[in-house]
Description:
heterodimer, A: alpha/beta, 8-stranded mixed sheet, 21 helices, elongated, B: alpha/beta, Rossmann fold
Amino acid sequence: xxxxxxxxxxxxxxxxxxxxxxxxxxxxxxxxxxxxxxxxxxxxxxxxxxxxxxxxxxxxxxxxxxxxxxxxxxxxxxxxxxxxxxxxxxxxxxxxxxxxxxxxxxxxxxxxxxxxxxxxxxxxxxxxxxxxxxxxxxxxxxxxxxxxxxxxxxxxxxxxxxxxxxxxxxxxxxxxxxxxxxxxxxxxxxxxxxxxxxxxxxxxxxxxxxxxxxxxxxxxxxxxxxxxxxxxxxxxxxxxxxxxxxxxxxxxxxxxxxxxxxxxxxxxxxxxxxxxxxxxxxxxxxxxxxxxxxxxxxxxxxxxxxxxxxxxxxxxxxxxxxxxxxxxxxxxxxxxxxxxxxxxxxxxxxxxxxxxxxxxxxxxxxxxxxxxxxxxxxxxxxxxxxxxxxxxxxxxxxxxxxxxxxxxxxxxxxxxxxxxxxxxxxxxxxxxxxxxxxxxxxxxxxxxxxxxxxxxxxxxxxx
Amino acid sequence: xxxxxxxxxxxxxxxxxxxxxxxxxxxxxxxxxxxxxxxxxxxxxxxxxxxxxxxxxxxxxxxxxxxxxxxxxxxxxxxxxxxxxxxxxxxxxxxxxxxxxxxxxxxxxxxxxxxxxxxxxxxxxxxxxxxxxxxxxxxxxxxxxxxxxxxxxxxxxxxxxxxxxxxxxxxxxxxxxxxxxxxxxxxxxxxxxxxxxxxxxxxxxxxxxxxxxxxxxxxxxxxxxxxxxxxxxxxxxxxxxxxxxxxxxxxxxxxxxxxxxxxxxxxxxxxxxxxxxxxxxxxxxxxxxxxxxxxxxxxxxxxxxxxxxxxxxxxxxxxxxxxxxxxxxxxxxxxxxxxxxxxxx
Lengths: 463, 345
């Protein structure tokens, strides 16, 4: 778990600012430090560590001076776990940040004067207390110095932060929220409908299922919430953890699918307002209507009609919002991070996503390959599986510890070779994709310290 | 379920499978549900069993596992098992299931096609996902009930001895299986409602077991715990916990303990490496010691997770991690491992 560092560090120091190094390593810190980066979307197959990656990116950004918020849509409440919170609800909650011990790892200021209660500060600041912000300017700048690579005098990177924001903003903060799909949907309805109609919609049984269990609602509402947070201007970086869908592409497609449906022929036919279309299409429609009625029952059809009628009035605003948020994903401030693990399925899914982003001109920041098994950096890196196995065999029963260690090493080398093969396949198919690796941990991550470690690994400074 | 109070059943893992005919395989994303479900189907096909492997997520995961092209909506015999058994595969999708349903119950194929053109499938899958789920679970329960001698036959032998469903992940499994309540809110009477009731009567019965695939990692184990609680709260029967991708033990317990404590004897290790004629034994020893320690820590965590899973009371069945590509012969190895642990019809 602690290998890889040597090569990574070498790449990083060479490539960090110039982007010229041959191994295309994703520069996570440059992405997070760039004030123009406003939205980071983490996507990938289920079970690859998207949520942890999103949380780690949010934390690292905060500790490098961004005002970051992480949105997760995961019903398993994993983000809550890893952020040490008991529960997240539909509003961003401050994550108490202990004093960053080594945010950037390359600066030297220990910033010893920063009290622990400081961590609660950023959230309070947004809520009520502008004075609190002033009080924190000192420590905040210190923190930013630590995080923002202040140690490197020849490093121009500290500048953009200053240029884009006041010095105050350099006191980073982290908020996190878990999407409450239904509540977000309810809010949208209330915003677009008068109270009476909103009441009708919210009470309709179709609305109830649509808002709680439609497989695209989660994605749609994640987009909606993303739009809201972006508009609020309270955060300068929003990290989105996409829903655990069947396929990573669902996050992009589901909102359109919902829009297409709500705008579709069938709905217009069912809607009283659609009687024009009904007349035009004539008898064919009657057949369909009677078929639908026969299968689902008339009560069902009536509920659906009244839902469509009520929903129709709010639909325009709805559609428009969805499109605006979708456009946001193509805007320059957005970066997609594709997350995978080194297995065939997850890498194939990642490749699909990379191709799709390319086709839709959506900006791909890079690929995160989680849970890799790098080899040690010393002579262990040179000892291949065959020689290790042969050495173990030659020792027979004489040195049991060495035999076990050699067999374990051989196993590890073979694992690494499989991983390399998958990664190489990806880079030869998509040579422009920048990659960063996070070595498998001995333990799962469930606290800020663990997330901070992941963040360091993402940035290539794994110790 | 009573075994919760009385501890694990005496019959071992086999009890979680024997007697059931609909096996629903769920688990956290990334745990290898499709592989486990396919291996289970093969194991249940031993001794002449006819098994249907049903995929409902539209991912064509079985096709990709078996190295075939995308499968059509059609029960296709894909795997033969020594002893005369076979596994047929059906990649079910809601649209095809709807058309089939219309034809079967109403004789309305043409109208069904019109519905498809109208976006009625969007209708089924978008606005009322309960309808989509009831079509897919309906397909599974229909296959469970189907008998030799056509749709009207009521007493001949069953067409399939077992149906294995590669089901949605744990996050959605409760809602997926509880179609009755999903549909009840929308259709209080009418044919869809009676269909849902019929489906539910199979899913709630002794015939059905929900199995959970997990890894020896904390989050999949947690989802397994949550999923079992959810499924049992719905009054459905849980079966086994299938622990997937279990690696072989590479260290003895004493070495694990020393490595975890940071007491690994690097001098003895270097000595051994030197005896094996390897260059730079001291530095190599430090490298390998690091690997041993990482392995030992991981191993300890896995032991903790395994103990936690065992405490759930459901039988644990382990599947080894495959070296290299998962293919037909690797699947056979997994099926054999299941059989050795008592998995049978």
